[in-house]
Amino acid sequence: RGLQAAMTLRRRAVKLAVKLARALRAALLQTHYRVQLRLPLRADRAVFGAYWGRGHGCNPGALEAAFRAYAPEVRTAWIARPEHRQAIPPGPRPLTPGTAAYWTALARSKYLVNNVNFDRRLVKRPGQVFVQTQHGTPLKHMGLDLQERPAAARDMDFAELLRGVDKWDYV
Prior knowledge:
Elements: H1 2-37, E1 42-49, H2 58-70, E2 75-79, E3 93-95, H3 100-108, E4 109-114, E5 129-132, H4 158-165
Parallel strand pairs: 1-2, 1-4, 2-3, 4-5
Helix pairs in contact: 1-3
């Protein structure tokens, strides 16, 4: 029983330590982001994302290729989770979601392009240009359309959705 109690205590201590480490990392990253928001925008930077970090593709992929072809002075970066990094073509800088480089790019880049939503904590700064390209077909029910379909909108936060839409400059 003593050994079992010690093992239970150890398991709980490890679980708590992991939880505290994650919370500390998140707090440090958000502090880093707040500092980056106070630094000047980089007019020669653009960040692209598609399908929640699944790599290069869809309309943002076409826009990113156009930036490289027609505005080569703008350095591009692409948000991709590690398992999707191989989908990024040569040229753009890969960004892993949730890293300091990711938050720096979101805070300091002039252009933000995505076909879904960026992290809800994104603060759109004066001077930033946010292009929302959507994805798929316009012949579907999404966003506020789901208010009429409660089963499809189970966990949808419509107020949060509207706060995100307010950040868009172009659709």
